[in-house]
Amino acid sequence: MRARSSLVVAAALLVSAAAVHAGPLADLEREQEALFDRIQPSVVVIATKDGLGSGFFVSQDGVVLTNAHVVGTFATVDVVLPDGTKLVGDVL
């Protein structure tokens, strides 16, 4: 019976914590989630022998923008699209 009381108290604390986060911070979080949902299809994973990074499409013809440290001195990199498709990309 004691374990059940603790569970009810914990659930009540979680509900109160959620109520505290309403307002401007919750609005900002919703805006960020909406932005992520809109941009996510353009984000790709870039893989080299040295590790992983990310990039995103900046044109309809397949140009991906990333940081120089992601591609290093490699002439080509593996690119994984959001749907899991794997491609080879030329570094410009």
Description of the molecule:
The protein is an alpha+beta fold. It contains three helices and five strands, in the order H-H-E-E-E-H-E-E. It has a five-stranded antiparallel beta sheet, with no helix packed on it. The radius of gyration is 22 Å and the shape is elongated. Mean pLDDT is 84; it is low at 1-9.
**CATH topology annotation of the largest domain:** Thrombin, subunit H
Question: Outline, from the CA principal axes?
Answer: elongated
Total separate domains: 2
> What's the pLDDT, averaged over the residues?
84
Topology:
Layout: H1 2-20, H2 24-39, E1 43-48, E2 51-57, E3 64-65, H3 68-71, E4 76-80, E5 86-90
Antiparallel strand pairs: 1-2, 1-4, 2-3, 4-5
Key phrases:
alpha+beta, Thrombin, subunit H, 2 domains, five-stranded antiparallel beta sheet, 42% helix
Produce a short descriptive summary.
By secondary structure, the chain is α+β, with helices and mostly antiparallel strands.
